[in-house]
Write a structure and sequence with these properties.
Layout (H helix, E strand, L loop, with lengths): L2 H8 L3 H10 L12 H35 L6 H4 L11 H17 L9 H8 L1 H12 L2 H12 L14 H18 L23 H11 L5 H13 L10 H53 L1 E2 L6 E5 L2 E3 H8 L3 H10 L9 E3 H10 L2 E5 L7 H4 L11 E3 L3 E6 L5 H9 L17 E6 L2 E6 L4 H9 L7 E7 L6 H12 L4 E6 L8 H10 L12 E4 L8 H15 L2 E3 L5 E10 L3 E10 L2 E2 L3 E4 L2 E9 L8 E2 L4 E7 L8 E5 L2 H21 L5 H9 L5 E8 L2 H12 L7 E9 L4 H10 L1 E6 L5 H10 L3 E4 L2 H13 L6 E17 L3 E14 L3 E6 L2 E13 L2 E2 L2 E3 L3 E6 L10 E9 L3
Parallel strand pairs: 2-5, 7-9, 7-10, 10-11, 11-12, 22-23, 22-24, 24-25
Antiparallel strand pairs: 1-2, 3-4, 6-13, 8-9, 14-15, 14-21, 15-20, 16-19, 17-18, 17-21, 18-20, 26-27, 26-33, 27-31, 27-32, 28-29, 28-33, 29-30, 29-32
Helix pairs in contact: 1-2, 3-7, 3-8, 9-10, 11-12, 13-14, 18-25, 19-25, 23-27, 24-27, 25-26
Bound molecules: guanosine-5'-triphosphate.
Length: 890
């Protein structure tokens, strides 16, 4: 007979049989065949408890009586001994067993069962034996019945004592448990009464929950708390034969009591701990405040106790911050302002003057914080400083500048072909924004964006990429306005100039004349004792190009141009565009390190990963070194020319930098203030400015010179006035760019800016001051230098109109038939009549009509007729600038 067969026969579980045999040192499995002797052992063991059971029942009855007296509830025990199959709806003995049989059966058939861990159950399984012998090991059952049951947890015999102490709660728990249990559907109610046990009188309706509880013993899918209770039950509760346990209920009662006490204790402890913590926090806070105060006080530097203090403050500060810095209460400051009739909150922002006023009341002098401009690279720790020994020679980077038609493009093209390897028909196929030539084994990089505007635009963006500037002057034309501009730009950028006197092949070429003119602008050739190299060339005929290249290399050698070739790359965007197929494309010039395919980078507001790389000849390459121009793709958006490109560690870092930079940029645009005459006095006061840079534009060369002389005389030991450019003609975009890059103001003498120059000035915040009397210019500058320039009136630009036709009307005069090309003109507008950017007349309008009607204003795109007061010299093509003058509120 096998174990499971015997178990089935005698009505116990196989595990019980195994356990019984185990206690007799016989290791058996469910399918093991049993000997006669083993069967007997099992049968004897199983039969014995019946007697005990009776004894137990008696004991239980006795205990129940005791329990009634003590009114202590015990939940499980009743059910343990509940053998009344008639009323025990939740009798789980049978269910328990049947389940087991069923499981054993399934197990035997090799089916998966949710059999719980047997090791956990062994204690329970050997119950029959325990009833006879093993209880004694722990505590003799008899002894317990007589003495110890009460000590532990006597039964609640009537099952109604759930109302004592935590009884209600417990009952609820049971209800909940029951619900939970039933919901899980683990309990087979149909089997509940399938027990052949006699004398189950203990059952009553109230005990249902207990039975349910007990069912959990077998149910391993029960919630955690249940399992926990079950475990405790295993230790504490005496059990009957065939694995029926009432311990769960008993333990439940014990557990609940303990739980209650524990909970109470824990809550009490928690409360105390919380109180303690709060106290501690309060103290900590106090300490912190004290500590803070100490720090705050230390911000005011005093020579001696009670002496005058000094504090450094930013341009704008909140009351709260000021109070902290002064080591006082913000409410004190608020009160002071309140007394002055100003209602401020602690977060109100004060001007430096207001802060100074407050500080003085506390005997503290304010020093204004110096604003240190941090570059993009420095801000995000992208600039890596190199040790001298890490740096190696690098190729020079050259820009060509000069007056229109003096041969910039011709020279760039000529130079481009100087190193075309023989047989390379067609020369360089890919034209990118820069290229490299090799001369005498040395590389020279040329930036292929001629013109000083491009050069300055890069400078405005903080990219000073040019090492040497080539100033091209046509020998047959001499120094022209743009030549002068180019000189100013190069000088301002502190870039050495090499003059290329071009077109020497032309019959009218006069090199001497050119050199003389250049001398006037501070460029003196070495033969005349100066240090500006001058090479006579012909770009068209490729004459003397080699000597130009040699001069470049020589100058570069003197400059000792070096860079670290081995670190992560830093580059500058020379040109950018959107390619339909490749997306954003940029021509970049490597300035440091090595750029490789796959490198992750940031560049201004864009970022990306180098997807493809082409050299200046259109060859696909995988890496590029210092001074090498390459075309790369992989940007998420088009970068701007002049943006610096830095390789970073990962995509995450790149995104973060760009996000930060975008936000910063927004703020900067709002904050960035360019120098103006009004701000001059303030900046002088703050000692932030030692030099005022001016760009002069006048209606004639003569007036420009006269103005330059008058202004130069104004320089004193406190401030130097530096005229970085002075020429005739309308204010150009280039002037504005130069002013923006150099923090200069533009003095427009009887001239006006071009449309693009005006919008650029608006964008960059460059001040263009309009004058038509030299005396007024010097007067304003003097006042500004003394800090006495109080602007009373401010000009507000309205719009521009182009004169299309002029109508002569008798008794009225000339009327301009004009089209509003920008903004608007109103009846109140003042006007300036401009011809070639030069102010011909400034005055008021007498009439503003559309068709035959008088109108208040005419907007962009509309035609109108304008009569100008006391002025008839209107010509077709003239520009009328409309503006209003407003008084500045003091
Ligand atoms: N004879 C002669 N003509 C030249 C020389 N270099 C340039 N040219 C001519 O001068 C004209 C203008 O030359 P570009 O190279 O276009 O001048 P640029 O300075 O680039 O002109 P922009 O791009 O308009 O500013 C062209 O017709 C050239 O052929 C030269 O060395 N000799």
């Amino acid at each position: 007979m096998r174990v499971w067969e015997l178990a089935k026969k005698i009505g116990v579980s196989s595990s019980d049989v195994i356990t019984i045999l185990k206690s007799h040192d016989k290791e058996k499995k469910n399918v093991s065949t049993l000997s006669e002797e083993e069967i007997k052992i099992v049968e004897n063991t199983v039969n014995k408890p019946k007697k005990v059971e009776k004894t137990e029942e008696k004991v239980v009855e006795k205990l129940v009586l005791e329990k009634e007296e003590k009114k202590e509830e015990v939940i499980g025990e009743k059910i343990i001994f509940n053998h009344n199959k008639n009323h025990n709806k939740f009798n789980k003995n049978s269910k328990f067993r049947n389940d087991r049989f069923e499981r054993n059966d399934r197990e035997f058939r090799g089916e998966r069962t949710d059999r719980p861990d047997r090791t956990d159950r062994n204690d329970r399984i050997d119950r029959p034996e325990r009833n006879n012998q093993n209880f004694g090991e722990r505590k003799s059952f008899e002894k317990r019945n007589n003495q110890n049951f009460g000590e532990r947890k006597p039964f609640n015999r009537d099952g109604k004592e759930f109302t004592d102490r935590d009884g209600n709660e417990r009952r609820n728990n049971f209800r909940n448990d029951r619900n939970n249990f039933e919901n899980k559907g683990n309990f087979n109610k149909d089997n509940r009464n399938k027990t052949d046990r006699p004398n189950r009188e203990f059952n009553n309706v109230e005990r249902k929950p207990f039975n349910k509880e007990r069912r959990n013993d077998d149910n391993k899918k029960i919630s955690k708390p249940f399992v926990k209770e079950e475990k405790e039950a295993v230790i504490e509760i005496p059990t009957m034969e065939n694995g029926v346990k009432g311990k769960n209920s008993k333990v439940k009662s014990k557990f609940d009591k303990k739980k209650y006490e524990n909970e109470k204790k824990t809550k009490e402890e928690e409360r105390k701990l919380k109180e303690l913590r709060d106290d501690f926090r309060k103290e900590d806070k106090k300490k912190k405040v004290k500590k803070k105060e100490k720090v705050i006080k230390s911000e005011v530097i005093r020579d001696e106790e009670g002496g005058v203090g000094l504090v450094v403050l930013p341009q704008e500060i909140s009351i709260k911050e000021l109070a902290e810095k002064l080591g006082i209460n913000s409410s004190d400051i608020i009160k002071k302002f309140f007394m002055q009739g100003k209602m401020y909150t602690a977060n109100a922002i004060l001007t430096i003057e207001e802060a100074e006023e407050i500080a003085l009341e506390y005997n503290v002098i304010v020093e204004k914080e110096e604003i240190v401009e941090v570059s993009y690279g420095e801000k995000y720790h992208l600039e890596i400083e190199d040790k001298e020994e890490e740096k190696e020679h690098r190729a020079p980077v050259i820009t060509i500048m000069g007056h229109v038609d003096h041969g910039k493009t011709s020279l760039l093209d000529a130079l481009r072909h100087t190193n075309v390897i023989e047989g390379e028909a067609g020369g360089i196929t890919q034209r990118i924004g820069a290229y490299q030539v090799v001369w005498n084994g040395q590389k020279i990089t040329f930036i292929d964006t001629p013109g000083h505007e491009a050069f300055t635009e890069m400078r405005v963006r903080g990219a000073n990429i040019t090492d040497i500037s080539i100033l091209i002057v046509a020998a047959d034309d001499g120094v022209k306005p743009q030549t002068i501009e180019a000189i100013s730009h190069a000088k301002e950028a502190n870039v050495p100039i090499i003059v290329a006197i071009n077109k020497i092949d032309k019959p009218g070429a006069n090199v001497m004349k050119v050199k003389q003119e250049l001398l006037e602008h501070g460029l003196i050739s070495p033969e005349w004792g100066g240090n500006t190299e001058m090479v006579e060339i012909s770009a068209k005929q490729k004459l003397n190009l080699d000597s130009l290249l040699e001069t470049i290399l020589l100058t570069a050698e003197i400059m000792e141009l070096k860079a670290n070739h081995k670190k992560r790359a830093k580059a500058v965007v020379v040109e950018s565009r959107l390619d339909v197929q490749m997306g954003p494309v940029a021509d970049v010039l490597i300035q440091e390190g090595e750029l490789k395919i796959g490198d992750i980078f940031v560049s201004g507001t864009s970022h990306g990963r180098v997807r493809s790389m082409l050299d200046d000849r259109g060859n696909k390459i995988t890496k590029a070194g210092v001074s090498q121009p390459v075309e790369i793709t992989g940007f998420n958006e088009i970068p701007e020319a002049g943006d610096l490109l830095y390789c970073v560690n990962n995509d995450k870092q790149a995104k973060k930098i760009v996000e930060d930079f975008k936000n910063e940029k927004k703020d900067e645009i709002n904050k960035k203030k360019h120098i103006s005459l009004e701000s001059l006095s303030k900046e002088l006061e703050d000692q932030q400015l030692k030099e005022l840079k001016c760009i002069i534009r006048a209606d004639s060369k003569g007036s420009a010179e006269a103005l330059k002389e008058s202004i130069n005389k104004l320089s004193n030991d406190k401030i130097n006035i530096n005229i970085i450019q002075s020429s005739a003609g309308a204010v150009t975009e280039g002037d504005v760019m130069l002013a923006a890059a150099s923090n200069a103001i533009i003095i427009a003498f009887s001239v006006r800016p071009t449309n693009t120059a005006r919008s650029e000035a608006e964008k960059t915040g460059v001040e263009i001051r309009n004058y038509n009397v030299i005396y007024h210019v010097t007067e304003d500058l003097e006042k500004a230098m003394k800090g006495m320039l109080d602007p009373e009136y401010k000009e507000i630009y309205n719009g521009r109109l182009e004169v299309k036709e002029v109508f002569k009307i008798s008794n009225v005069g000339n009327i301009a038939g004009a089209l509003v090309i920008e903004g608007k003109i109103t009846r109140q507008s003042k006007v300036r009549l401009l011809r070639d950017g030069i102010i011909i007349h400034e005055g008021e309008i007498t009439s503003l009509k559309r068709y035959k009607d008088d109108v208040k204003e005419a907007s962009v795109g509309q035609d109108c007729g304008i009569g100008i007061k006391d002025f008839n010299d209107i010509k077709s093509g003239d520009i009328i600038e409309a503006f209003v003058v407003e008084q500045v509120k003091q």
